[in-house]
Amino acid sequence: MASRTDLRPMGIRDILDETIDLYKSHLGVFLAIAAIYIPYEILQGLWLGAEASLSASPPEGWSLREGLIAVPENLLHYLVTGVVTVAAYEHLRGQKTTALDAYRAFLRRFRSFLPALLLLLPLGIVAEELSESPSWLVLPGLLISFSLMFAVPLFVVESQTGFKAVWGSIRIFFAHPFKNGACMLSLLAIVFILMGILYIPMESVFGGEADSWLQRIVAGSVDGVMGMVLTPLFSIVSLLLYLDHRIRREGFDLELLSEDLQRAASDRNPGADARPTRESDGSPGLSEKI
User: Fold this and answer.
1) What are the angstrom distances between the C-alpha of 58 and each of 8, 65, 127?
2) Residue 256 neighbours by CB under 8 Å, 6+ apart
3) Taking the alpha carbons of 155, 187, 133, 207 in that order, is the dihedral positive or negative?
4) Exposure check for the chain: N or C terminus, fewer CB within 10 A?
């Protein structure tokens, strides 16, 4: 068993440092989980290119069509975020986990996540549309996105779903809005830097819109790589912020330490009657759930 990360109350810099350390330590696992973005973005680019070539101008209801495209994008986002969160939480607890193990664990419980997903999908699409607006609507879009970022950790760690997960996420965000927002904005700054590194050379080579099949494949590959690299970072920082909230509120780090001591005692004495570990809200520990 790997050593457990020393969870403790953390400031903004500590959380960002811990995010980078965890990301680098298990880079292969996180990239393998999020690699699904590459074929998805390539196929979507080819499909949109084929659709555009068949019509000289966008058809009626173009905005609705774009909204429908956003549904599978957001489904993929929550799937990858959930799987990364499972892997990151297990690594934080000192458990070795592969990408395949994390996918199996999350998909085994995916049906329980559906009630929350039905709420998160429309809210996420609205937030995305607002965030891409060139006006003052960007701020409320970011606020909605940030306030929903704890729904997945709440499901993975506490098995909260449906309205409880969404409302719990909002409550956690507004308990420390400056700290949570500052961490996410710091990651967004990294996103813009990477976008400049990846997209500016592509624009100079292709000269704007991707018209050929090859250009669409390259553009989709770049979009997929962006999703593969960045989604784990946002997932990890959301998990760490959530854990920091619970540590400050209820001493969750001491609870995890107690679980580790019980597990170590059980390993030394396999015949002992080890009681199952439980979360502070009475729900079973992650190892029991998955």
Assistant:
1) 53, 10, 24
2) 4, 7, 93
3) negative
4) N
Q: Among 226, 200, 235, 195, which residue's Cα sits nearest to residue 45?
A: 226
How far apart CA 70 and CA 133 sit, in angstroms, is 15
Identify the weakest region by mean pLDDT among 11-25, 155-169, 205-219, 232-246: 205-219
CA angle, 108 as apex, 150 and 81 as ends, to 5°?
30
Q: What is the pLDDT, as a whole number, of residue 283?
A: 44
Sequential DSSP letters for 41-60:
HHHHHHHHHHHHHH-SSPPT
The pLDDT value recorded for residue 285 is 46
- Is residue 256 within 8 A of residue 7, CB to CB? The reply is yes
Place of tokens 């719990």: 168
Q: Which of 285, 271, 286 is nearest to 85 (CA)?
A: 286
Domain locations in the chain?
Answer: 12-265+276-289
3-state secondary structure of 128: helix
DSSP for 24-42, written as a single string: HHTHHHHHHHHTTHHHHHH
